[in-house]
Amino acid sequence: MSSKLHYENTIENLALTSNDSDEGLTKRVEKEKIGKELKSAARLLSIVAIGSVVGTTLMVNAPSIHEGFRAVTSDDEVENSVSETASYFADSTIYVNCDNDLLKRFDEDDPRTKDSEVISRAGAVRKINGPFGFSFYPPVTTLREDICSSIADYDPLLAEEDSKNTLNYALGLTVLLHEIEHTKEIGSEAQASCYAHQKLPGALKASGVDSAYAEELSSKITNETSHFLLPEYLSDECKPGGAYDLDIGGNYLIPPSSNPHPS
Is residue 166 left, alpha or beta, with left meaning phi > 0 and alpha meaning psi from -120 to 50? Predict the structure, then answer.
């Protein structure tokens, strides 16, 4: 993975600290069944909502609107699978694009990454800007295609037997959780990252990963990530008692320079 990979992660109001993975899986199955029944209605409502809110800013935000419309109307099996996972953890409807070309275009629009030969972003949520200073983040995110595959290919029945499958899922989930946080109007990269890493252990447990392994794996991911993230993804407030502390027993993405016990 690139040393400048933007780990994208998080979920609002997750706070899942139960060690009962069977209960978590049961809840997920039930929500997926309901989601399938409501999917058509939800997509139609989302299209109408996007059109209504954007209004006169349609031309200015044409790329974002196209991105959102494509995700809402996707027939891609992987995209739909990842969208269901995102919606489960966000506790609201989220749509996911799996598109390397789109992320590359985002890179080209960013002075920091426009000359990069590889895709530097693991994911992105595009803010839509309206008149009179109005702006909002739509419930749409774009992920790198390999990130999507790592999430869609995860098999909870192999969580203990196939460590590579679980590791890839955990890394992909970290990206997804961060992006979900942006859809909930959190613009700060540091705040989104901090929330994501605190919520990652609970998300893994809810996905069927053994409690002890979920704690161990998420801790390793957080420790490694802190050494590769760009400065804007880190904050001294990501600590026990800090402004970004959710107090849910998760991991803190502490900047290496502030960590008294580096791994």
Answer: alpha
| Beta strands 95-98; 140-143: pairing state | parallel
| Position with higher pLDDT, 159 vs 247 | 247
Q: Are 142 and 103 in contact (CB under 8 A)?
A: yes
Convert 1-15 to b/e letters by CB count within 10 Å (16 or more is b). Answer: eeeebbbbbbbbebe
Amino acid identity, residue 54? Answer: V
d(CA 54, CA 57): 5
Measure the CA–CA gap between 85 and 76, rounded to whole angstroms: 14
The length of the chain in residues reads 263
Contact between 160 and 214 (Cβ < 8 Å): no
H helix and E strand count, the chain: 8, 5
Token pair of 211 as six digits = 């409690």
Query: Cα separation of 17 and 231, whole Å?
Result: 29
The DSSP symbol for 126 reads: P
Q: pLDDT for 79-133, tens place per residue?
A: 999 999 999 999 999 999 999 988 888 888 877 777 777 777 889 888 887 777 7
Match 């959780």 to its residue by tokens: 177
Alpha carbon distance, N-terminus to C-terminus of the chain:
20
Contact between 169 and 154 (Cβ < 8 Å) = yes
Q: What is the pTM of this model?
A: 0.71
Q: Are 147 and 123 in contact (CB under 8 A)?
A: yes
Per DSSP, helices labelled H in the chain are 21-54, 62-72, 77-90, 100-108, 145-152, 163-183, 189-206, 211-225
Please list the residues that pair with 136 across neighbouring strands.
Answer: 128
Q: Where are the domains of the chain?
A: 21-258
